[in-house]
Amino acid sequence: MAVVKLKRPDLAAGEKLYLGAIFKGFLITMKHAFDSLRGKTRGSDELKSSGLGATMQYPEQKWDDQLPEYYRGAPALVTDEQDRERCVSCQLCEFICPPKAIKITPGEIPSDDPWAKVEKRPKEFEIDMIRCIYCGMCEEVCPEQAIYLRKDYAITGLSREQMVHDKERLYEIGGKRVGLVNKWNELK
């Protein structure tokens, strides 16, 4: 395969100094500044801005009502209507997680439990929210619909340890899901 060398076009004296581009950028910035002072900022109505500019005032105003239907937020575990764990510790979500943010330790269900036919449940289930990239693969691969991505984007913590959500925290923020759960199906 032949190598083709391209010669860059020679720049004029004004282009070499790039003062024209700086001046043009300054004019655009000033136009936006004067428009915001006159209350004619484009997009301020949709963002419910404070009036000056199109900046949303974050802690007071949030995107919750403007999130698209397909938005994927932070993952959480859910229980069924009777507060039973949906997770069967199959570890598919752990294996498919690209950043390896999920860690599961399977545990056995005692034989005297009425749901002992299920084989196992998670003894420990942790999701590192710092590592999580909110890709949704864990939700897609879960055969028991035990993990869901909720529409939550404001996850905060004061330390790295607080950003690792354990099983209790994941169930607390996940809540209940209504519907058929394969794990508790009598025909299974």
Topology readout:
Elements (H helix, E strand, L loop, with lengths): L12 H5 L1 H19 L6 H4 L27 E3 L14 H5 L5 E7 L11 E9 L8 H5 L5 E3 L14 E2 L1 H8 L14
Antiparallel strand pairs: 1-4, 2-3, 3-5
Supply the key terms:
Alpha-Beta Plaits, 13% strand, 188 residues, 5 strands, alpha+beta, two-stranded antiparallel sheet, elongated, three-stranded antiparallel sheet
Describe the structure.
The protein has 188 residues and is an alpha+beta fold. It folds into 2 domains: 20-56; 75-184, Alpha-Beta Plaits, CATH 3.30.70.3270. Helices cover 24% and strands 13% of the residues. The chain is built from 6 helices and 5 strands; from the N terminus they run H-H-H-E-H-E-E-H-E-E-H. The protein has helices at 13-17, 19-37, 44-47, 92-96, 137-141, 167-174; strands spanning 75-77, 102-108, 120-128, 147-149, 164-165. It has a 3-stranded antiparallel beta sheet with strand order 2-3-5. Strands 1-4 form a two-stranded antiparallel ribbon. The longest helix is centred in the N-terminal third of the chain and has 19 residues, at 19-37. The radius of gyration is 26 Å and the shape is elongated. The termini are far apart. The relative contact order is 0.16.
